[in-house]
Amino acid sequence: MTEVRCLLDAKAGIGESPVWSAEERALYWVDILAPAIYRLEPETGALRSWKMPTEIGSLGLREHGGAVLALRSGFHFFDFATEQLTFIANPESGITTNRMNDGKVSPDGRFFAGTMDDEKLSRPLGSLYRLDPDGSCRRMVGDLIVSNGLAWSADGKTMFHSDSKAKVIFAYDYDLSSGSMSNRRIVARPDEETGRPDGAATDMEGFYWSAGISAGVLNRWSPEGKLDRQIEMPCAAPTMPCFGGPDMKTIFVTSLRGHMAADKLAAKPLSGGLFALEVEVPGVPVARFKG
To answer: Which residues are paired to 230 by β-bridges?
Structure first.
């Protein structure tokens, strides 16, 4: 049985978007509702945080320092030293019921982030956007309820993406030179009991690790869509895994506790915490944004 340890009883409303910085030996993540960015050094326990002006769905680290953020108000750069935000673009300024959600830097240094229907969580009003290093923004996929689960294979040629509320995991052929996506196919359709697909990460064998938010588990899917492994988490609703550590064999997992029923919270009081577990196969490192 895999041991899952609680690194931090963060009590996050919606913990999300863990990103490992190998150079700093530190983990960044967000609490969408706080809203804030956090940074933890697992070896020392040193913790820092930065408040945000609006809900923050996700972040990516930049090649030359700082981060690229997906806020409710759109894409921004953030300087950790000066705490200054620099606005880039808001692709959905006219859709007040949406907010930005899961995002990740692609292997070629672009930042993908999606949106979701924040009002009813049932309408296909969300989209997936691509932010290029030159600051241009393109809509890549539409008709999503909750855009989620971004991850790439080790060679960068397969891109994974999910719609949490539609309960489907997709794969695309990804072109590293142009950032284009093609040949969409369905990898899996997890049900509520298996675990509705939330955030995700990939390992070096091509498997897709997905937070099964509705079942309190971490699922490892084969590229062909077979459920290879399921790990029970000490939280009711895990939200996203991220590989890190010195050998990339540690999986860090965020979770949520906001709006959780009292009985669920009583059964899993560490919900909203930050967790870690060790696995045999290393993860695929996430690139930095080139802009």
So the answer is: 219
